[in-house]
Design goal:
Layout (H helix, E strand, L loop, with lengths): L3 H16 L34 E4 L13 H6 L5 E4 L16 H19 L4 E6 L1 H4 L1 H7 L6 E7 L21 H8 L1 H4 L6 H7 L9 E6 L19 E5 H4 L7 H6 L2 H11 L15
Helix pairs in contact: 3-5
């Protein structure tokens, strides 16, 4: 048996390397919020056609700019007021976010939604999140009073029931101290491992709260949130979508489904405006 001190650090590094695939590296030009890209315009007033602002919630290691360089303009061009935030900052770690304790990240989301609602004058917002960003808002809805302020939550490849990182997390019990190391250095990552205390609390008593419309968009090629069906929610107002059921040619994995997949984006648009939804097909890549 390998001495745990020799394998503890490589194991933690391996887990972090796997998780970094959640989003691409941040650019050096990143600011705390999207610069003059058309979104995060606090003078934007929702239209009658799209009466709710859309808040985009990035994934682990993501930020408010890089995660949304494609989806934010896609929604803005369709007439939505679009906003994005940074959350889960760790002291001394620039550019990469979503690493702090997820319950604290949910508090940051709560404050941000209040700010967006105050600026836009809207009664409710819609939330769209990628990976951790599709799961973390459920804590806000369930425990921080977010339910009455949110109309819909759309999760793109969300780790709603945790991930084993293709089995890597199952090794943790064999290495004393590994879980403590991860919790200390990257609690946001540790909270996402299947069976964590955070996820146990989040999912106890049901996946959803009344009054919120839930959509989950998943890909069977997801290599980060595994198995991919663990992303799906149960509840009376839940719409679970496997993107390959819409287009069997779609090969997007965990990163691309949130960053560039216009077929997935079309499903997002349908979820935000179900009254005017149109069929999602392979041709939606051109929409």
């Amino acid at each position: 048996m390998l001495p745990w001190k020799r394998v503890l650090r490589p194991l933690a590094a391996l887990l972090l390397t796997a998780a970094v695939a959640v989003v691409p590296a941040a650019t050096a030009a990143h600011a705390s919020e999207a610069p003059h890209t058309g979104w995060n315009d606090y003078s934007c007033k929702p239209s009658a056609a799209h009466p709710r602002p859309v808040v985009l919630v990035h994934g682990t290691f993501g930020n408010s700019v890089d995660n949304w360089l494609a989806l934010a303009p896609y929604l803005e061009n369709r007439g939505y007021c679009v906003f994005s935030l940074d959350y889960g900052q760790l002291s001394g770690v620039p550019l990469f976010y979503g690493l702090g304790p997820i319950d604290k990240s949910a508090e940051q989301l709560s404050a941000y939604v209040d700010r967006v609602l105050a600026a836009t004058g809207a009664a409710k917002a819609d939330l769209v999140g990628h990976s951790q960003g599709g799961m973390m808002p459920r804590y806000y809805l369930k425990f921080l009073g977010g339910g009455p302020k949110v109309n819909a939550l759309v999760g793109i490849a969300p780790d709603n029931h945790g991930t084993d990182l293709n089995g890597l997390a199952n090794l943790l019990p064999y290495f004393p101290g590994a879980s403590d190391l991860l919790s200390k250095n990257t609690p946001g990552l540790a909270d996402q491992i299947v069976g964590s205390a955070f996820l146990t609390k989040l999912n106890a008593g049901g996946d959803t709260v009344p009054g919120v419309h839930y959509t989950v968009i998943a890909t069977k090629y997801d290599e980060v949130v595994t198995p991919y069906r663990s992303q799906f929610l149960s509840g009376s107002d839940v719409h679970n979508v496997l993107i390959q059921d819409r287009c069997s040619l779609d090969l997007s994995e965990h990163v691309l489904i949130g960053l560039t997949d216009r077929i997935a984006f079309h499903e997002v648009a349908n979820a935000l405006d179900p009254a005017h939804a149109t069929a999602t097909t392979c041709a939606s890549v051109l929409s």
